[in-house]
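Can't paste images in this forum, so I'm doing it all in text. The chain is below; anyone willing to post the predicted structure tokens underneath?
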Amino acid sequence: MQQTPNSNRLHIAIFGKRNVGKSSLINALTSQDIALVSSLAGTTTDPVYKAMELLPIGPVVLIDTAGLDDEGEIGELRIKKTKEVMDKTDLALLVIDGDGADLSFEKVWYEDLKERKIPVVGVINKIDKNDILIEHIQKVIDISFVKVNAKDRLNIDELKKAIMAAAPEDFEKSTIVGDIVKPKAKVLVVAPQDIQAPKGRLILPQVQIIRDLLDNDAMALVVKDSELDDILASLKEKPDLVITDSQVFKKVNAIIPKDVPLTSFSILMARYKGDLNTLVKGARAIDTLKPGDKVLIAEACTHHPLEGDIGREKLPMWLAEKVGGKLDITVCAGSSFPEELSGYKLIVHCGACMFNRQQLMSRIKKANIVELPITNFGIAIAHINGILDRVLSAFE
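Text version of the structure:
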């Protein structure tokens, strides 16, 4: 459980005004003193993340945030960071002080969470301070509330039960590839060792997909693209499916027989983390690009770019060749994402293995609102190489 990537954990964010006990609550839920607690308002500045196991849900990430009512120029920046947390929130805890007199901040934030279709559990903290009636608060915010005293860790078990009851079952899909392979299927996994791959290890999508194949009783054969001809020659029968790194799509497509289903790690992650249909539609928008158009390339992880980097060198080069001229490329990485999307003609996102599904879907929704096409690396590369229909046929 402790080795589960954060991107595969249910993300539970704690929202509330300054000094309502959010940090004390996260300490109570984890039974650890991991968040700094002080009577001074505004102690929590940047969001604090804690990976843990919350039975019977399983692996989760708890997120402590700055106060909704933070003030001043720095306070506005803290609130901006808190709002960014909403993009990755699967379940929200809205914490209200035992006074509960002015709920204007909480009401606005609740409406935002509601609009995003994020389930919310209400928490009334410091019940010893003023044991007000839940009914009074529910007139303003119509959700269920649990009374606790986070400092003394009272009624935390009841809160955990409420969290379990409200946790969305579909916060992530049940399988990455298991729905398109049968037990005993022979799956050829082409895993060139990318320059960004950590030394001595496979990159995360490769690890997750191989594990998913094993969990679904398929037989995974893993090779580099340089040994692809050799493994095919050694097999008595054709593989049932080939999964490759998108960067070598052109080479692998030329080698693999046309009657063998072919897809990529990135395309599988597009199904698992996002909306495949929307991302495919976005790839076809590449045909409408003209030299000089603005394109946003978005990456989930932050890494030091090396020579031959996919997002900064290869994709811009391949897109320019397809379009017939240089494009105006902007690259954003990690949680950084432009608030203003007007002017862009296309977003090309990575496979988002470092994001939870909610975070990628939030970006897709933002693009949809302004009718901006969005696709991902693998789907875009397949379209550029003229094999998009082939690599999607595995899902029909």
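Confidence is low (pLDDT under 50) at residues 37-44. The first strand starts at residue 10 and ends at 16.
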